[in-house]
Write a structure and sequence with these properties.
With about 80 residues, the chain is of the alpha+beta class. It has three helices and three strands; from the N terminus they run αβαββα.
């Protein structure tokens, strides 16, 4: 949880676009789960963390996940 607390701090100090790229070892949907049983409680916590940091999950092809701040999404969408 320290990671998510640090990310919340970063988010609260800036309204500029930012991006996270990486493997969080968590999933939000059963269809994303591979190799183990889906844990709804863990998925709910992960989704709440994404929401708390005002991040959006971007579609991808392959094995990567990409999250972009909502500020970035809105600025690109409105231009």
């Amino acid at each position: 949880m320290d990671l998510w607390n640090n990310l919340r701090d970063i988010c609260s100090f800036s309204n500029k676009p930012w991006m996270l790229i990486g493997d969080f070892n968590d999933t939000m949907l059963p269809s994303e789960q591979r190799g183990s049983e889906f844990d709804q409680n863990r998925a709910t916590i992960f989704a709440q963390n994404i929401d708390d940091c005002r991040l959006l999950c971007l579609d991808h092809v392959g094995a990567c996940s990409l999250y972009l701040s909502q500020e970035s999404w809105w600025s690109k969408r409105d231009s």
